[in-house]
Amino acid sequence: MQLAIIIGYLALLIALGVASNRVLRGTSRDYLLASHTIGPVLLLLSLFGTTMTGFSLVGSTGEAYRRGIGVYGLMASSSGIIHSLCFFVIGMRLWSISRRHGYITQIQFFRERLGSNGIGLVLFPVLVGLIVPYLLIGVLAGGSVVNSVTRGAFPELFADSGGGVPNWLASLAICLVVLTYVFFGGMRGTAWANAFQTTVFMVLGVVTFYVIATRLGQGDGLLASMQAASEAVPREKLTFAGISRPLFASYLLVPLSIGMFPHVFQHWLTAKSAASFKLSIVAHPIFIMIVWAPCVLIGAWASSDLAGIPDGLPKNTELAFLVNKLAGPTLVGLLSAGILAAIMSSLDSQFLCLGTIFTNDIVLHYTDRNRFSGRQVVLLARLFIVVIVAVTYGLSLFEPRRVFTLGVWVFSGFSSLVPLVVAAIYWRRLTKAGAYACVLSAAGSCLYFFRESDFGARLDYSVFGMLPVVVMMFASTAALISISLVTRPPAQRTLAKFFPEMAQ
Amino acid sequence: MAMMRTYWLLVVLMIVIHQGVWFGEDASLVAGFLPWGLFYHISVSFFMALSWWKITQRVWPTDLTDESETGFDT
Questions:
Q1: Could you tell me if A421 and A473 are in contact, meaning their C-beta atoms sit under 8 angstroms apart?
Q2: Of all helices (H) and strands (E), which one includes residue B34?
Q3: Partner-chain contact A252 B72, CB within 8 Å
Q4: pTM of the entire predicted model
Q5: How many domains does chain A have?
Q6: Which of A28, A204, B21, B48 is 20 to 30 A from residue A153's alpha carbon, by CA?
Q7: Spatial separation of the C-alpha atoms in residues A269 and A99, rounded to whole Å
Q8: Interfacial B residues in 25-44 facing A (CB < 8 Å)
Q9: In this structure, is residue A444 part of a structural domain?
Q10: Does the beta-carbon distance from A84 to B52 stay under 8 Å?
């Protein structure tokens, strides 16, 4: 039954993508940016859906199960400050500059701002190298959720995977569904699907919380059940024990990554007007709270004996385990669809943005732009999306890391690039040499620390008791400032273009 | 200028409120089910939304591109 509901939900998404294809205008700008027609509500829902990933639902529950409720302070409330700050300080400015000059991707902006073609060739592999593991988070989480909720349903067919749909098959199905609606619908289809999926996972998230809360504690009513569930939680899981102050402070830098996500940049550009950002800026902290607080509380409850989480339960499956244990088959199907909605609402934007930057920043940039019609550009983007989906799926078949750990590494890499975008918008003295130094320092330090942590295997890896992101950001910022100051300032013409108030 | 100062003060205040209060070992429960640390940080989320609402009301930039200015279609 649960599998039938999940399949029905996936079919609905494909239909949505195909339906949005009917209103496509046939131009690349419409396929990639929905012709800048997205208003405040759709922008909020699509941006929020994009930023909430497997990391937020599956990862947060799993991490709270292991570390307790401090996870909320580490990632959720900190994101409430930083995400809105990035929308306000970076997003609106980039939207404005890009509207004025017709940019579609981050790399186009940096190339012109720095007067350097080469910066694109440096940024492209770094951005792709960071976004692919981010995609992996969603693919891995989706596969493990479907496997977990279908366990025991097919004892003979899938005997090797506990009688559930194997992770590899579930991940493949999810990749194909997302690929299909992105392929047909482009950014408009993605924005529609994201808005729909955000609504689905927020509503079903509340239902999930209610079901788990009432059935886990088994008290007389919701409040009594929640009280019983919380009282059974080991004391240390109800506190910030095990999280040092320096570590807590360093987590504040992780959500800064949103300022350099290429898929979020692309969503920013879909906005109809600057005023469209207002709702996203104000409502983002509340939306994060609505999703994260129940997940973190459920994760803490999962650590109690009431939950009966078996030893050796596969990574990232605690939430799905509880849903499967406490809800009936129909509800399990619906709640699983809700979890998958959160996961897929990020995958789609990430796939689309990779297709966009490959088409615009590599193919069109290095060939004669007039050789391609609008439809051919769309076709190129679609073909690259297919390649990226295949590569990501192939990587997901290797040994998975914990979703939360993988997420923190990816976000740290993007955070260490944020000084570049801030300087490009606000600092006239930024030079192309400074930009190269910043990107190379960020990428180099990220690779160094990732290797030192045994490629993410050392879960408690820290530098001076803090996340490596602190050192990475310090290195990239120091390189950017010092090299910019000792190299020749940008041309007056460039400054006049990007700082028009100076020319007046 | 004074408004911009207020904006940055609010951002700093949000960070101080987020970082400044610590529930290291406090395992007590609000209403018998919500750990204090989680309750505090949920309250912080509401404060942030309120602060961002104030900021968007008071210091909304006026030099951004108007929606009538569009890029080119390809």
A1: no
A2: strand B34-35
A3: no
A4: 0.88
A5: 1
A6: A204
A7: 8
A8: 25-27, 29, 31-35, 37-38, 41-42, 44
A9: no
A10: yes
Minimal Cα–Cα distance from B64 to chain A, Å? 6
Domain with A196 in it: 2-404
Q: Which of B25, B32, B45 faces A241 most closely, judged by CB atoms? A: B25
Nearest CA-CA partner of A283 in B52, B6, B11: B52
For A356-369, the pLDDT digits (tens) are 888 888 888 888 77
User: In this structure, what DSSP letter does residue A271 have?
Assistant: B
- What is the number of residues in chain B? 74
Cβ within 8 Å, pair B32-A227: yes
The amino acid at A461: Y
Cβ separation A230–B74 shorter than 8 A: no
Q: CA A94, A95, A100, A101 torsion: positive or negative?
A: positive
Identify the residue whose tokens are 């949920």. Answer: B42
Tokens of A496: 């006049």
Its ipTM equals 0.88
Q: Which residues pair with B30 in a beta bridge?
A: B34
A309: domain CATH number is 1.20.1730.10
Q: Summarize pLDDT for A268-306 with one digit per residue, the tens.
A: 988 888 889 999 999 999 999 998 999 999 999 999 999
